[in-house]
Amino acid sequence: MELWFSEKHTENAKFSIRVKEQVYSEQSPFQKIDVFETEEYGKVLVIDGIVMLTERDEFIYHDMIVHVAMATNPEIKKVLVIGAGDGGTVRELTRYSTIEKIDMVEIDEVVVKASREFLPFTACKLDDPRVNLYFEDGIKFVEGKENLYDLVIVDSTDPIGPGEGLFTTEFYRNCYKALTEKGILVNQNESPYYAHNAREMKRAHRKIKSIFPISKVYQYHIPTYPTGHWLFGFASKGLDPIKDLNTDKWNSLGLKTKYYNTDIHVGAFALPTYVRDMLEEDTN
Amino acid sequence: MELWFSEKHTENAKFSIRVKEQVYSEQSPFQKIDVFETEEYGKVLVIDGIVMLTERDEFIYHDMIVHVAMATNPEIKKVLVIGAGDGGTVRELTRYSTIEKIDMVEIDEVVVKASREFLPFTACKLDDPRVNLYFEDGIKFVEGKENLYDLVIVDSTDPIGPGEGLFTTEFYRNCYKALTEKGILVNQNESPYYAHNAREMKRAHRKIKSIFPISKVYQYHIPTYPTGHWLFGFASKGLDPIKDLNTDKWNSLGLKTKYYNTDIHVGAFALPTYVRDMLEEDTN
Predict the structure, then answer these.
(1) Which long-range CB contacts under 8 A does B27-30 form with residues at least 24 apart?
(2) Which residues form the active site (chains A, B) (predicted)?
């Protein structure tokens, strides 16, 4: 049998993964959630037809969304994670014994249920005693919060469907307020190549830059996202991800990571010229 | 009409580009050569079913195969290019007025003919007076050459078919001999993610490392190659791509590049931990 899952990256380009079996499919109140078992990528989580993560390459995404901030400020104690229902971001955070509290706000409880059952490799630390799960709208959750978190991670889908409000100026402004003095915001910042992704990349960066004194963008290579070239935003009230990187401190922790290291931490902020130019554009 | 070109990146993953028209198809004595006109990527050159380059993202490959070496040693005057029948590598080299001579050795004249006709955006500088075209086997061409080139670029296909001999120890040893005292070798060094590419990545690096005192690997993001994460090797008789990088000198040239800049030059050598580990393995 030939069974293939295909994702159209644009109308004119698509990526396909051979499927052994569709192990889960559910329409939640928010979105369609599917899990496939595949030869090439192990388990694959698909939401509304778009690959969210695969068992084989999720380490790249989760290393880069967590460790860059943690190596910049090893004093981070209180973390807010928005989205990330698969649990991978929380898994990486729980590796730091210095973190005291992780509030995770996921709008769709069905994603967490599916992940606990089918994606134990990411969901495995959701029961850590420091983790508080809130099945709420992250946009509302941050409203009115002040000076509470050392790190806010916006682990969102693309800005369509439930993820849309996580790309607004008001939301980023509330994140700013929710952060402590040394606070850091890390956000899923889309991709520079295909036009629709590049547009959202520019818009998110422009908004965040208008609020945070420090706002940079860093890249990672992930095989199963369109073009393989994706970005996270790093914004803060003062800490610089390169000048304040505490290389010795992070390396002394002895954390074993498959993608992240303190060299690629620095290297990831060196962007191609065409990406740098797009991020510097003032246009909408 | 729906017409799609598909490339199997592995038996279980494939990438497809919608085709407007197949504008060229020929079986040369060495390989099958096709050119497609596409909406997403403009003209696409395919050899034996594998994407070699596209009009839209070839700038990434050609920036990175040329400018890293040129910024490390701005004194490069004599260059040997092996493969690269599309002309893109030569195009970037001819931008340096300081280069006096470019020998380009392409085994398959049909690739050059097709590129001149359908890919003028890469083939446009093949008639530069400094360029000498040899339609010969690059492996034989370097045999017996001594102390002749400041830079050798191995712009090869994967190590199957005509490209296979360009991945042997003997060939790399002949490149070493063909280089001058400050000589640099840049080679297409495959990709770390899929097993068959990773195997060739490790083998090429191990062989080159056994011959050259300095041997490093650097990465670039290219949408139309499998996983988007590909590598070049940088080897030399003494020059270090980071310590000897002449940032001011290169920037003073005023070359406009869409991907390369002297920041990403340095950043590209910062590899993910799993890639670094694979390259350090001693196994075959």
Answers:
(1) B28/B108, B28/B109, B28/B110, B28/B111, B29/B108, B29/B110, B30/B107, B30/B108, B30/B110, B30/B161, B30/B162
(2) 155 (proton acceptor)
CB-based contact, B3 to chain A, within 8 Å: no
What integer pLDDT is reported at residue A282 of this predicted model?
A: 65
- The ipTM of this complex is 0.95
Tell whether residue A155 is among the known ligand binding residues. Answer: yes
pLDDT at B164: 78
Which residue of B17, B228, B273 is in closest CB contact with A228?
A: B228
**φ, ψ for residue B153 (rounded to 5)?**
-115, 120
The hierarchical CATH code for the domain A58-280 is: 3.40.50.150
Contacts of B164 (CB under 8 A, 6+ apart): none
What does the block give as tokens for B170?
């003997």
Residue in the structure block whose two tokens are 């701005």: B74
DSSP A228: G
Alpha-helix residue ranges (DSSP H) falling in B179-218: 195-209
Binding residues of B for S-methyl-5'-thioadenosine: 31, 106, 137-138, 162
- pLDDT of B112-147, one tens digit each? 999 999 999 999 999 999 999 999 999 999 999 999
Asked if the Cβ–Cβ distance from B193 to A223 is below 8 Å, we say: yes
Q: Do the bridges between strand A78-83 and strand A50-54 make them parallel or antiparallel, or are there none, so unpaired?
A: unpaired
Q: What ranges do the domains of chain B cover? A: 4-54, 58-280
- Whether A261 and chain B come into contact, CB under 8 Å, resolves to yes
pLDDT of A65 strictly over 70 = yes
Binned at pLDDT 50, 70 and 90, residue A283 comes out as low
Catalytic residue among A103, A155, A244, A263: A155
Question: How far is residue B224 CA from its own chain's centroid?
Answer: 14
Q: What is the pLDDT of residue A159?
A: 76
Chain B residues in contact with A261 (beta carbon < 8 A): 270, 272-273, 276
The domain covering A4-54 belongs, at the CATH homologous superfamily level, to Spermidine synthase, tetramerisation domain (2.30.140.10)
Q: Find the largest Cα–Cα distance for chain B.
A: 57
* Nearest beta carbon to residue A12 from set B40, B267, B269: B40
What pLDDT sits at residue B281? 84
Q: What angle do CA B66, B221, A9 make, to 5 degrees?
A: 140
Whether the CB of A45 is below 8 Å from some CB of chain B: the reply is no
Q: Would the CB atoms of B223 and A227 count as touching at under 8 Å?
A: yes
Q: Which of A221, A231, A265, A278 to mutate to test the interface with B (most CBs of B within 10 A)?
A: A221
Asked if the C-beta of B261 comes within 8 angstroms of chain A's C-beta atoms, the answer is: yes
Q: Is B277 a catalytic residue?
A: no
Equal fold, B4-54 vs B58-280: no
* Pairing outcome for strands A78-83 and A101-105: parallel
Closest to A26 in 3D by CA, of A127, A112, A134, A140: A112
